[in-house]
Prior knowledge:
This protein has 213 residues and is mainly alpha-helical. It has 8 helices and no strands. The protein is elongated and about 125 Å long.
Amino acid sequence: MAKNGAEMRRITKTYNRLSILYVAVYLSYAFICLVSGIMIPSVNVILLLLDTIILKCGLVACGVLSCYKHKNSFAFYAVILQLISAIFNVMEGSFLDMFFGGLITGLSFNRLLFILSVIFCVLTVYANKRYEYLETQAGFPHFNERCFNQEFDKKQREIKDEFQQNYERIIKTSSNEMTDIDMNSRDTFPVHKRTPEYDYEHAHDEPERMDTI
C-alpha cells in the first residue's frame, strides 16, 4: 500500500505538471501570436483566429481533460488539433515562427509544438495506464492504511446492519404466524359449562359419535 501510495503521488504530479504545461505553452503562444499578428498588416486574420482561438484553445481543453478525466482519447485529440496547425502552417509568417522557430531550429513553431504535443500525449497515456492499475488495488485512491481500515469497518457495519434487519424481519414474520395459529386453535374459544339444558340438547349426539367411531 505504501508503494502504491507513492506511485499515486507521482502520477498526480504528472497530471498537474502536464496541465500547467498545456496552459502555459499553448495559450502563451496563442496570445503572443494574436498580438503580433494584429501588428503585422499582411497576416491573414481568419487563419490567425483559427489557429489562436479555435485550434489552440481546443488543444488546451483536450489536454487538460486528458489529465482530469484520465482518458487517452482527449490526448489524441490534442495531437490532432496541433497537427492541423502544423500541416496548414497557418502562422508561418508570424513573429514567433520567423524569429524563434525559423531562425533557431529551421522549423515553424507550430511544428515544434506538434512534437511537444506528441510527447505530452505519450506521458499522459503512460500515466493513465498506471492510474487504471492503481484503481484495482486495495486502498485506492488514498492508499492510507488508517483510511482503508475505517472504510473496511464501515462496510462491515453496513453488512451487519443488513443481517440484523433480515433477522428482525424473520422474527416478526414468525411471530405473526404463531399468533394466527393460536387464534385458530380450540384453546382460544371459551369453554361451555355443562348444564342440564346443554345435556338435554346434546343427548342424541353421543350415539352418533359412537357409531362414527
